[in-house]
Amino acid sequence: MYNTPMTLRDEMLRIYKDSGTQKRIDQLVAGFAEQIINQIAPPDMLRPTDMPPPPAPPAPPKTPSYQSAYQIVGVSQGDSQELIDAVYRAKAKYLHPDCPTGNTDEFIKLKTAYDTIRRHS
Fold first, then answer.
1. What's the number of domains the chain is made of?
2. For residue range 89-108, what is the model confidence (pLDDT) as tens digits?
3. pTM
4. Going by C-beta distance under 8 Å and a sequence separation of 6 or more, which residues neighbour residue 114?
């Protein structure tokens, strides 16, 4: 006959016929499974449990204090809401990320400060 390697099924059937014990079959299955795992992922390869945790998500932008929000927008507490809105819009147009003079971080800071003023007025 041919000299072919014995498959898991053939080996299990041979042992079952020889001894008839389920325990030995379970041992063989576990052994074959370990061999297959070691062929796919060698022992020196990182296992999922050995991998470092994923990085933490970035922190949300901090809400400025009520007092510093006026400084960021560029108005004082005594100014009217219309003036605050006009100053905010002018600065927002200048800092908007789609403009050549835009700055995303400063725009977000300005927007957060303006939202803080709107909430407290």
1. 2
2. 999 999 999 988 888 889 99
3. 0.48
4. 69, 73, 84, 88, 92
